[in-house]
Amino acid sequence: MAKKIAYLGPPGTFTEEAALKYDPAAELVPFYSIPAVAAAVDTGLAEEGVVAIENSLEGSVTDTLDLLIHESKLRIRCELTLPIEHHLLVKPGTEAVNAEVIFSHPQALAQCRRFLERCFPKAQMAAALSTTAAVEQMMSSSIPAAAIGTERAAELYGAQVVARNIQDRSPNVTRFVVLAPDDHPPTGRDKTSLCFSFDEDRPGLLFGVLKEIADCNINLAKVESRPTKESLGRYIFLVDLVGHRQDPTISQVLEKIRARTSMVKVFGSYPRCDVAP
Amino acid sequence: MAKKIAYLGPPGTFTEEAALKYDPAAELVPFYSIPAVAAAVDTGLAEEGVVAIENSLEGSVTDTLDLLIHESKLRIRCELTLPIEHHLLVKPGTEAVNAEVIFSHPQALAQCRRFLERCFPKAQMAAALSTTAAVEQMMSSSIPAAAIGTERAAELYGAQVVARNIQDRSPNVTRFVVLAPDDHPPTGRDKTSLCFSFDEDRPGLLFGVLKEIADCNINLAKVESRPTKESLGRYIFLVDLVGHRQDPTISQVLEKIRARTSMVKVFGSYPRCDVAP
Description:
The structure is a homodimer. Chain A is α/β, with parallel strands linked by helices. Chain A has 3 domains: 4-83 and 173-180, Periplasmic binding protein-like II (D-Maltodextrin-Binding Protein, domain 2), CATH 3.40.190; 87-163, Periplasmic binding protein-like II (D-Maltodextrin-Binding Protein, domain 2); 190-271, Alpha-Beta Plaits, CATH 3.30.70.
């Protein structure tokens, strides 16, 4: 029986494309929010779940970070990257130049800002909950409209691609993670993601943790901060360490981090995905 | 003549409220994007501009960070905080319980998720470009609708507030910054915001900079990373240092940071705003 993989739907999103790339033989099950994807895996509705975690232009997907920090016990089992290509779509037989309104997810509108300002200075921008929802809204719009969406959304909804790769900058790449009840066994080319916080606000606390990492000669692949949600100006720090949590150096540094912080949560160790520049 | 202050409009947004709190006597001029607010100040259309930079639940406003990093030469002259209170609004004389669609900005929808899931499990969520646009769309909706918006938007559009403070968590506080051609003279209780990056990707580079800051006994109020937009996995780091850039310790550490990085941009020094816990 094919493995069931939950993903942030509807069909036609970049996350569906990432899930297909991760496991072309799997049965893909769309869910309508990032917490819903995690809940599907938590409850056994699906074996694994695919969600976006970071984009090369827009930065972190904060819903995914906050889920890992606050809500889910799932581990990161894998990561993969996908180039993001935005296209301009219209109803077949209509002219893009007449579009009075352009539908898309706010992030897609932001990533195509220069193209939109130059080619559609007078069109109104309309926010949609996903690029797929945008294509659906465009197809049923009573006023002349266009949408920013994917090749696959064009196929699924019968829309016509009239301009390709309209994003302001390349490369536009998104990193996705596969969430599962367990993380990945060591492969020799791994990464460990975790978060930590402090119960006091004193100079040098974060520095002390980073010093432990540097003293062990561990490469810090990423540092990021998220609000604790308790008060403004207090943060939870997220780091990616090069190595597997079962490697002796990583497991020792994790102990040292635990001794210096009030909370540590390891999101998992998984094979590093090499990123083309 | 009253000082002209640009803000992220339309009227009725939290940013308008922040601008009013900052200078109740100013003439407020709404602009429709964060880059447009900066452009208004850059060109002299307004003397200062107010934009949100960070929320206690959602984290950084990445459009503002990216503007400071990549686009604008404006300085941060001031910061201020505002409690964010979301209310549920309907057309006068209609019942909220009948709402089939709920309009708001995606961030407001996210901040009220628990309330919406409990009280409106079957309603459809519709994204709007601002909480004010959401109220406008709700008022002209032909199907039974509600919107999440502010007290002031209710006043401006003649909507009725039917539930107050529906956000999932308190305190929900947003920090705003005032952008101007020059930053603020020293007050003795200041903060300096800057960003830096490296032209190579070697372990210990970020650590080296944080060590200079720790060695000078300077309190690091914030560390944050944003994508360089050049490739996935390369970052620009943003830090807030306690002190004014004209203080000898801060000006020395800035020199040391310059020596260790390929790019430094100081966003400005300004009086620290004390944050209630």
